[in-house]
Amino acid sequence: MGILDAALETGQAPDWLRCERGEFILTAIGPHVAVIPDFEACAQTMADDDYWSWRATSILVWVRGVNALDNERYEEAAAHFQQWANLVDDSPWPQCYLAFALDELGDYNGAMAAFLQCRNLAEDADARRQADGGLKYVEAHVAVENGAWDEALAAYEEAISLLPDDPWLFCERAEVFMTIGEVEPALGNAQACLDHSGEDDSIREWAESLLQDIESGG
Known about the structure:
mainly alpha, 12 helices
């Protein structure tokens, strides 16, 4: 990284070096807004290069979509992920990301369709598991909206079996148990949510709030 920085500081580096530094940062930290400046420069300076123009644009819409999703700007996220899916139409991941944004918007039919497309495009076990777990996640939300608590719990159980490290599934299932007055399972799921929260402050705060509510009888 230091070598790339030093080369770029000379002002004489080839245009594609900003693209390469963007890729290096992306590999290190994932779809974080810190990669945007390099890929914006890449898209501008390499506009005549078919590969880098496509690659930079696809990374930019992915990263902006993730940022919008993380900050609860779901319509913006869905628009970015749809553009990403159009640019990378042979990958399952844009469809899975799009599905999560549509689910947050309450477009459950659209979310299920996107998860199914993610499943159809998946060539590896991780993508298939994400798609299958996502479908159950949406089914749980539909059941919750309809007050079908047993169906919701069954869907969460299947989603968790597929995505056991996703903390919000435990927090959401804890809320269902709270709604139907099942205190012990609610406590267990809220604790599991906290245990799986890792460095995600928002999930940890959610789990801690649930635990306080349950223990106080709220």
